Amino acid sequence: MNAADRRSAALRVLPLIDLTDLDENSSPLAVAALSAKAITPHGPTAGICIWPHFVETAKSLLHGTGVRIAAAVNFPDGGTDMDGVLADTEKAIADGADEIDLVLPHRDFVENGVIISRQMIKSVKKLCGPRVRLKVILDTGTLDNDALIESASEVALEEGADFIKTSTGKAEVNATPEAMRIILETIREFRRDAGIKLAGGISTLEDARHYLDIADEIMGEGWTTPETFRFGASGLLDDVLAALSGSAAAPSTGY
Ligand SMILES: O=C[C@H](O)COP(=O)(O)O
């Protein structure tokens, strides 16, 4: 991409980023720095994505800025501890979370079928109510099978997910164009108003633009807005800001 293309990609990508800090060593200080970084001279990111116990800190800093606060629950393992997931969700919402990123209990989904997964998504959605958006993280690299990705997407959409998110960023395989295609085709077929969040290992504008091209191809141009499309990324904003300030490109991971 030349400098003009990078700049135009950066302007498109910036409002779609959920700037993420889900490091196990995250801290209130780190969340404060993340919150400050989310408000750039070129406009805000869509949101920040953090651990539930830091929502209160972020809320006090971001209140009124338009930057949404997403809390990751059942993260990153995707276990079946329903009570723990509901308690974390309830607390995050009470502290001011605008969005919940819930990891599907994917091992149980693969081994035992849909019952626990449906129950968990339905119960978390009930806590979210009409105000708080629910993103369901499939962990597509672990599901590792097209039919499973498709059926997990269907289950999430049927139980009220507002977004399907590919990955935690902690698995060996995270977002991929192949998984994205399956999810988007399912969304197109079942619930065009639902969104997709690509997450894990996306750190260059080149990669981000490749995902946007696929979204344009499958859903049509104009579909990708912050209401339907996000990049969950800890590093992508750096390349966006470099492009907007005219610096050189970061090396692409090569999609
Ligand atoms: O939920 C988002 C991911 O954890 C971000 O992954 P990343 O650090 O590879 O960008």
From TrEMBL:
CDD domains given in the database record: DeoC
GO biological process, one term: deoxyribonucleotide catabolic process
Sorted UniProt keywords: Lyase, Schiff base
Pathway of action: Carbohydrate degradation; 2-deoxy-D-ribose 1-phosphate degradation; D-glyceraldehyde 3-phosphate and acetaldehyde from 2-deoxy-alpha-D-ribose 1-phosphate: step 2/2
Catalytic activities: 2-deoxy-D-ribose 5-phosphate = D-glyceraldehyde 3-phosphate + acetaldehyde
InterPro entries from the UniProt entry: Aldolase_TIM, DeoC, DeoC/FbaB/LacD_aldolase
Entry's EC annotation: 4.1.2.4
GO cellular component: cytoplasm
SMART domains: DeoC (SM01133)
One annotated GO molecular function: deoxyribose-phosphate aldolase activity
NCBIfam families (alphabetical): deoC
Stated family: Belongs to the DeoC/FbaB aldolase family. DeoC type 2 subfamily.
Full protein name: Deoxyribose-phosphate aldolase
Organism: Paramesorhizobium deserti
